[in-house]
C-alpha cells in the first residue's frame, strides 16, 4: 500500500513490450483523481468521485479535438457499465474495473503480461525483490524515489489550465439529457 501524496500523475502500469495497455493515475483539480486507461487506441477516462467515464478512440480524433463519427464497437476493447461500476477489457487479457460506490478500482492482467509490464504497480513477475524497479531498470532506495520515478508529467503545485474541446452536436444532446440539473435522466 502506497500513500501517493504527490500532486502529480503517475504511471500505474504499462505493457512495455507489446504496448497493449497503459494505466495512469491523474491528479485533477479539487484534490480528486482520475484513471486514464488506454487499450488498442481506445482511451477511457474514469472519474470515480464523479461516477462518470468518458470513452473515445485516439485514432479517430484529430489535433483540433474533433472526434470523427466512428464506432468504438469495431475495435477489440470492450466496456460494460452498470449502476455503480464500469469495466473495460481487451482481448489481450487486460481488465480495469472501478466500483464507484466504494471508490475502488482494480487492474487485472492475464498471465502473458507476466514480467513485461511495469509502473507503480510493480513488475508483475512474482518477484518481491524487484518491485521497486525504476524506469531505467535500477532499484529505488525508498518509496519516494520509486513513486517520483514513475511520474508522467512535470509537476508543480499550480494546476495547468487545459483548454476544453468544444462540444459536438451529439455531445451537447447527451449533456442536456444526462448532465443538466433539471434533467430527470441525470
Automatic annotation (TrEMBL):
Descriptive protein name: APLP protein
Species whose genome carries this gene: Columbina picui (Picui ground-dove)
InterPro entries linked: VWF_type-D (IPR001846)
Transmembrane region(s): none
Domain VWFD span(s) in chain numbering: 1-166
Gene name tied to this protein: Aplp_1
Highest taxon listed in the record's lineage: Eukaryota
Amino acid at each position: 500500500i502506497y500513500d501517493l501524496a504527490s500532486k502529480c500523475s503517475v504511471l500505474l502500469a504499462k505493457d512495455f513490450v507489446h504496448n497493449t495497455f497503459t494505466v495512469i493515475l491523474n491528479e485533477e483539480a479539487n484534490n480528486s483523481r482520475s484513471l486514464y486507461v488506454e487499450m488498442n487506441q481506445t482511451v477511457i477516462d474514469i472519474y470515480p468521485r464523479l461516477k462518470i467515464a468518458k470513452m473515445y478512440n485516439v485514432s479517430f480524433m484529430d489535433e483540433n479535438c474533433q472526434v470523427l463519427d466512428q464506432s468504438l464497437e469495431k475495435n477489440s476493447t470492450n466496456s460494460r457499465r452498470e449502476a455503480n461500476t464500469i469495466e473495460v477489457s481487451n482481448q489481450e487479457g487486460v481488465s480495469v474495473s472501478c466500483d464507484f460506490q466504494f471508490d475502488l478500482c482494480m487492474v487485472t492482467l492475464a498471465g502473458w503480461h507476466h514480467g513485461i509490464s511495469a509502473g507503480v504497480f510493480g513488475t508483475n513477475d512474482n518477484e518481491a525483490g524487484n518491485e521497486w524497479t525504476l524506469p531505467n531498470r535500477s532499484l529505488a532506495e525508498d518509496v519516494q524515489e520509486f513513486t517520483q520515478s514513475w511520474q508522467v508529467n512535470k509537476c508543480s503545485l499550480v494546476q495547468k489550465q487545459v483548454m476544453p474541446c468544444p462540444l459536438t452536436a451529439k455531445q451537447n444532446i447527451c449533456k442536456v439529457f444526462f448532465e443538466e440539473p433539471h434533467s430527470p435522466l441525470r
